[in-house]
């Protein structure tokens, strides 16, 4: 009798475990929140522990081993392939990257600002399109990402076009004129903490860093979303706004980018 009872419990636990696993797989497959949670907080942590290195270091390794040195397109393709096939990462990605490219070409910036460097992917996309006398400043608050971004940008052959500034955007923006010699910004790419999009845009205005015709491009305005930013610029007569529906990087999840032209 006891043996039957124990067997029943074990079978129930086994069936329950299988059902839980199936339910988890289905949830991860069909829910973007669950998928990102699974990738970022489960698989990534396990892989980091096993390999004793971060995902960002693995992205750098892939670039170091596979990309053609001095070839920005090769570096971008390498990162896209790795993040599309192996480990999801928060780059702007190849699909939204086309929108970024076209906006940079439209702006023809002499001085560009990026907020959120991460591994340097979008910095490379921007810098490779800059004219010889143009420069990109990119702000990153995570000190662990900065050396990786610097090395990847160097492999792409764009180190002279890019300056990475460590710090929080709200601290760096007021320093841009005096410390970094910026008069005004021709192009701004917002790809950092979404809740900072609106206050940092206002800070750019207050610091006199935007001129008539300055172009702002914001990523992830649908997922995870930047509602305060969208509300601010779309209700502000000083901006002419255009929305570009697209997909979240490396996923078929609806997202969008927002272009805002400052009219002064």
Automatic annotation (TrEMBL):
Cofactor: Mg(2+)
Binding site for Mg(2+): 191, 219-220
Entry's Gene Ontology cellular component terms: axon; cytosol; dendrite; membrane; synapse; vesicle
EC number: 2.1.1.6
SUPFAM superfamilies assigned: S-adenosyl-L-methionine-dependent methyltransferases
TM annotation in the entry: 6-28
Binding-site residues for S-adenosyl-L-methionine, renumbered to this chain: 92, 122, 140, 167-170, 191
Top-level taxon: Eukaryota
Cofactor note: Binds 1 Mg(2+) ion per subunit.
Keyword Iron-sulfur found: no
Keyword entries, A-Z: Catecholamine metabolism, Magnesium, Membrane, Metal-binding, Methyltransferase, Neurotransmitter degradation, S-adenosyl-L-methionine, Transferase, Transmembrane, Transmembrane helix
BP term (GO), one: startle response
One Pfam family hit: Methyltransf_3
GO molecular function list: catechol O-methyltransferase activity; magnesium ion binding
Catalytic activity entry: a catechol + S-adenosyl-L-methionine = a guaiacol + S-adenosyl-L-homocysteine + H(+)
Coiled coil spans: none
Acetylation in keyword set: no
Family the UniProt entry places it in: Belongs to the class I-like SAM-binding methyltransferase superfamily. Cation-dependent O-methyltransferase family.
Functional note: Catalyzes the O-methylation, and thereby the inactivation, of catecholamine neurotransmitters and catechol hormones.
PANTHER family membership: CATECHOL O-METHYLTRANSFERASE (PTHR43836:SF3), CATECHOL O-METHYLTRANSFERASE 1-RELATED (PTHR43836)
Protein name (database record): Catechol O-methyltransferase
Organism: Pseudonaja textilis (Eastern brown snake)
Lineage, broadest ranks: Eukaryota, Metazoa, Chordata, Craniata, Vertebrata
Recorded name of the encoding gene: COMT
């Amino acid at each position: 009798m006891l043996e039957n009872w124990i067997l029943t419990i074990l079978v129930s636990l086994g069936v329950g475990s299988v059902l839980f696993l199936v339910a988890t797989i289905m949830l991860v497959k069909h829910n973007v929140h669950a998928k990102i949670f699974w990738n970022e907080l489960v698989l990534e942590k396990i892989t980091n522990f096993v390999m004793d290195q971060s995902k960002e270091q693995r992205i750098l390794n892939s670039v170091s081993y596979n990309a053609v040195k001095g070839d920005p397109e090769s570096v971008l393709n390498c990162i896209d392939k790795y993040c599309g096939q192996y480990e999801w990462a928060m780059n702007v990605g190849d699909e939204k990257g086309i929108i970024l490219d076209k906006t940079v070409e439209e702006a023809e910036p002499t001085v560009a600002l990026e907020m959120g460097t991460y591994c340097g992917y979008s910095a490379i996309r921007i810098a490779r399109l800059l004219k010889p006398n143009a420069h990109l400043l990119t702000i990153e608050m995570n000190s662990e990402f900065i050396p990786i971004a610097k090395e990847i940008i160097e492999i792409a052959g764009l180190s002279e076009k890019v300056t990475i500034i460590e710090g929080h955007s709200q601290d760096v923006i007021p320093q841009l004129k005096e410390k970094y010699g910026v008069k005004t910004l021709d192009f701004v790419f917002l790809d950092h903490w979404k809740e900072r999009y609106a206050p940092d845009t206002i800070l750019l205005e207050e610091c006199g860093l935007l001129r008539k015709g300055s172009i702002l491009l914001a990523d992830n305005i649908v997922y995870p979303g930047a509602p305060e930013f969208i509300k601010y610029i779309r209700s502000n007569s000083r901006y002419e706004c255009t929305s570009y529906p697209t997909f979240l990087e490396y996923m078929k999840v609806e997202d969008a980018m927002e272009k805002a032209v400052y009219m002064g």
